[in-house]
Design a protein that fits this description.
By secondary structure, the protein is mostly beta strands.
Amino acid sequence: MEIQSVTAILIALSVSSALHAEEKENIVPAGGATGAEFTAPFFTQSQITLSLKNYWKYLKEENENPERVHNAWGQGIAVNYQSGFLGDVIGVDADYYGAVKLGASDYFNSRGVLYSQGNGNHKKNAHGYAKWGQRNLKVKYQLHQMQLNARWGWQAVKNVGVITSSTRLSPTTYFGWTGSAAYDGLTLRGAYFENAMARNSPDKKRFQTNTGKEINHLSSGALAWEGDKLRMQYGYGESAHYLARHLLLTEYAPIKPLTIGTQIYITQARNNYRSMPDNKRDFDSYAAHYALDISWKNDRWRSKWGFGYTDARKENKVGFYPRHISKYSRGTFTSMAYAGDDYMRDREKVLSNLTAYNVAPNMAIGVTGNIAQFSYRQNHVRSGEINLFTQWKPLNGVSIAAMAGPGWSYKSNGKTPHLINGRYRRTHTLASEIIIEYKFNLL
């Protein structure tokens, strides 16, 4: 059964169950409930939240061309409205996002903070934006011991199978359906999307291939189970006639401080992907990424180590595992190899670490880094980075995060090393970001 069919069934179950409940109770239950009691929770349980976020993101690199600086700085505002439910069944949500440009360099658009309005990579194209990023109808219903939920409209999602949202000053949002059915520790989720708005844009976009050809829709589903010590999730999704993806995630906690996680991601090419020119394909026909991580956490310390390996063959070039299954979408990816366009090249092995120490109940400092290697024409090509970071919550609703550090990579054409006298040439990078956010409830 196709993923969109599963989603439609979930939504139909939710809506039909809700209508059946209303019909059975005739809106005004025989027990004496009034119309006011039916509608009041819609208003009394509503919430309005205001968020202010200042975001600066910077990268200096020299991988493909002479040294480039990618720099973007913006101030964001978000107003989030969540209604209660009419009859404990139907409600609405709406989010407004605005962003103001505070600073930008050429190539600012790679940072995903400011809106790019114009051609080329010029800083004059950097602008702020305003948009209703989320506005949707939501339905919930309790059917015996099963909880049914559905949404229709513009919405942000988190790890619905192979699709998720990413956030800068606003999140990536999608237009379409999502639905779920949960029973005990088992949850079935589905999604079907036709359009998207990027995290740094107010424009409604159709999903696209790497050549700009439109994709009719994205569909995704997942089956998850959560027990006392073990969590598992299998997900599958497609960008129509372009890419298909499977994922299998597990997390096991044998004792309280220790967690062991595994991730398997497999992506298969469909006809519209195979027909693209070679320089537009990240891999030939099949790509996979495998990851293992181990975490230890106590009252003051937390440390997470991860190992990843990628298989993404591409004839005569270095292939790459793409995190996303189309342009204008974001892919679910929890491996510690997640870092820009690095660490997921064909036959690349990567070792990662994140270690933090709570110097106070509301402040942590730490270090994170990656080191990776793959082989290309008798070269052991190495790349990596190391960053210091801090997270501080000085007041209720206020958070400050900062990170900075150097890295190293290689001169390249795409992902393929550019060799001089048969040897690759090392390059250097410097990255930093600062995020200051304030959230409080208006209602």
